[in-house]
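Milestone 3.1: sequence recovery, worked example.
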């Protein structure tokens, strides 16, 4: 999924208008899942917020969101993510692991929190997706025990493409995003390296990305889906590979 790096690139912008934010983000009701994430907390049910991210623009963009869950008794938790989306495309993700900050009246699917929870999105961002590196990606089989699943991703960085901004920083970091696609062509999983130390041109390195929300406890890597979607994936696709910080 390449994006134009010139005048037609996705705008680099922060959006704080509520009506405009709603074009990009649909926030669902608090939901409980009896999955590997619940096992991590030693519970039957884990509470989170389902979110649909949409790119309403006419170019491929990295769409980022910050979510805040505020409790009526003062509890709060924040979360967010950035998702590469083609024009008009959407993806469903899980954000706000509420077990970290809120208590629920019982360990059951429909148990309410002990305080009222209000979820909001103070802002969204859009940013260009650069066709930055000439690189090969190879994807291995999912490994690891339930709750600690890993996706091996081997990258060979062959060249920096012409016409892209210069990477900056004393230590260079790269971001890369992998999407899991099902048989209908729907994006059902998103895996990310948010800040991996950049490999040199000509090098090959294998990264082991957390493959589920429960496995993604390392802040340098993220996954936004439960293990239940992994069996539906028929193809992995690299949709972004670029430096974390570039010249403006």
């Amino acid at each position: 999924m390449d994006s134009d790096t010139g005048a037609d690139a996705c705008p680099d912008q922060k959006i704080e208008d509520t009506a405009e934010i709603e074009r990009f983000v649909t926030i669902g009701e608090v939901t409980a899942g009896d999955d590997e994430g619940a096992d991590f907390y030693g519970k039957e049910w884990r509470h989170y917020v389902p979110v649909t991210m949409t790119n309403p623009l006419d170019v491929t963009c990295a769409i980022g969101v910050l979510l805040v869950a505020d409790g009526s008794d003062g509890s709060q938790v924040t979360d967010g993510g950035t998702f590469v989306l083609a024009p008009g495309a959407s993806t469903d993700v899980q954000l706000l692991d509420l077990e970290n900050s809120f208590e629920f009246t019982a360990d059951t699917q429909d148990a309410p929190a002990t305080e009222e929870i209000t979820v909001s999105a103070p802002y969204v961002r859009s940013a260009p997706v650069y066709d930055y590196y000439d690189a090969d990606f190879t994807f291995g089989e999912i490994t690891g025990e339930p709750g600690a699943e890993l996706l091996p991703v081997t990258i060979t960085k062959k060249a920096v493409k012409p016409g892209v901004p210069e990477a900056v920083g004393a230590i260079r970091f790269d971001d890369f995003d992998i999407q899991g696609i099902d048989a209908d062509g729907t994006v059902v999983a998103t895996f990310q390296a948010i800040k991996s130390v950049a490999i040199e041109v000509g090098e090959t390195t294998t990264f082991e990305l957390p493959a589920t929300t429960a496995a993604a406890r390392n802040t340098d890597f993220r996954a936004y889906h439960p293990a239940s979607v992994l069996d539906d994936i028929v193809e992995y696709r690299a949709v972004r590979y670029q430096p974390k910080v570039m010249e403006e």
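The longest strand covers residues 61-71. The mean pLDDT is 92.
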